[in-house]
Design brief:
This protein is an alpha/beta fold. It has one domain: Alkaline phosphatase D (PhoD) (Purple Acid Phosphatase, chain A, domain 2), CATH 3.60.21.70. The protein is built from 8 helices and 17 strands. Strands 6-7-10-11-13-12-14 form a 7-stranded mixed sheet, with no helix packed on it. The protein has a 6-stranded mixed sheet with strand order 5-4-3-15-16-17, with no helix packed on it. The protein has a two-stranded antiparallel ribbon with strand order 1-2. It is globular and about 50 Å long.
């Protein structure tokens, strides 16, 4: 074991001890239905994406030091573009025993969705041949129970409800791979197509049903970005009819505290969209092990503050009065971005 790994190991032992002490005082978890009750005045969700299982993973100690109540994977949780399921399983198995991630699993509830590289096909769509087998491996990696509803339907979309001192926090994770139509590129740029769909009829029906419920805070996760429009890569804006349909559903939501979370881009940023009756925020967190520095001047008309071309993870910190802090943090506890959402009127 290298000196760096030895140092990381002992640091994580300290972090685990601190975090477990906090958890013993802070929460009781029912892992069957993922309900959560807290005696604290904050509910902290950490999230991230784009994690190459074979690279250095320097952020797990920083994530644990945030003492999160929940970790959400937002896709590219491993990089396994393959139809060989034994190869994919090996990569998931390698990730599960990484020192930092193993500490997170021991101390924090974990949920998640996939994107393309863990789905099994780069920029993959509904025609990927191994999507059912890949789904089983992804759910096994997330330790989803064998009798969970998501096991018995097509797609990875899931719903979670958390009770935070009587406040309802609903988390919806959308599957933008299993049902999406194939898209065309021209000169490496995706061409938006209003005739193409991203969720599929079954998932749209499910989404409309779960969005009819009541909650105080609504968080919706997707492997790819919801709001940005200008960049040439994968995004909801490539499916304008689907994006408009989603925003129309959000206009009808009974809560004004709506946060979208996404990954994929190898960069971090925050976006804000003013709808007719509410403000929608998006936090993009990517990547955990690698970042893309080739587009420092990329435009995004909805961006809050600056683009972060560095390793990062996201934090949603929900307060007792339902005010919310949105953060992007990096190695060494560095705070890249912070934005506050005021408590509802």
């Amino acid at each position: 074991m290298s000196l760096k790994n030895i140092t990381t190991f002992f640091l994580l032992i300290c972090v685990i001890g601190i975090h477990q002490s906090c958890k013993d005082q802070k929460q009781t978890i029912d892992k069957t239905n993922y309900t959560f009750k807290s005696n604290e005045k904050e509910f902290t969700i950490a999230f991230g994406s784009c994690n190459k299982h074979h690279l250095d993973q320097p952020l797990w100690d920083d994530i644990l030091l945030q003492s999160p109540d929940l970790w959400i994977w937002l896709g590219d949780n491993i990089y396994a573009n393959t139809e060989d399921m034994s190869e994919m399983k090996k990569k998931y198995d390698l990730q599960k025993v990484r020192i930092g991630y193993a500490a997170l699993q021991k101390n924090v509830p974990i949920i998640g969705i996939w994107d393309d590289n863990d789905y099994g096909s780069n920029d993959g769509d509904k025609y990927y041949d191994k999507k059912l087998e890949s789904k089983t491996l992804a759910l096994d990696f997330l330790d989803v129970s064998t009798d969970a509803e998501v096991r018995n339907r097509a797609g990875m979309h899931q719903e979670f409800l958390y009770d935070f001192d009587g406040r309802k926090i609903r988390v919806l994770l959308l599957d933008t791979r299993s049902f999406r139509d194939p898209m065309q590129k021209v000169k490496k740029k995706y061409i938006p197509d209003a005739s193409k769909d991203i969720l599929g009829s079954e998932q749209w029906t499910w989404l409309e049903q779960v969005l009819s419920k009541d909650e105080d805070v609504l968080i919706i996760g997707s492997g790819i970005q919801f709001l940005p429009e200008e960049h040439r890569f994968e995004k909801w804006s490539n499916f304008p009819t689907s994006k408009s349909r989603l925003l129309d559903l959000l206009k009808k939501e009974n809560t004004n505290q709506i946060i979208l979370i996404s990954g994929d881009r190898h960069l971090g940023e925050m976006s804000k969209l003013e709808l007719e009756n509410k403000t929608i925020y998006e936090v993009t967190s990517s990547g955990l092990t690698h970042s893309y520095r080739g587009i420092p001047n990329e435009t995004n008309r909805y961006r809050i503050d600056s683009l972060i071309p560095k390793l990062n993870f996201g934090i949603i910190n929900i307060k007792e009065d339902l005010s919310i802090d949105l953060l992007l943090r990096g190695d060494g506890q560095h705070e890249h971005l912070k934005h506050n959402i005021q408590k509802p009127e």
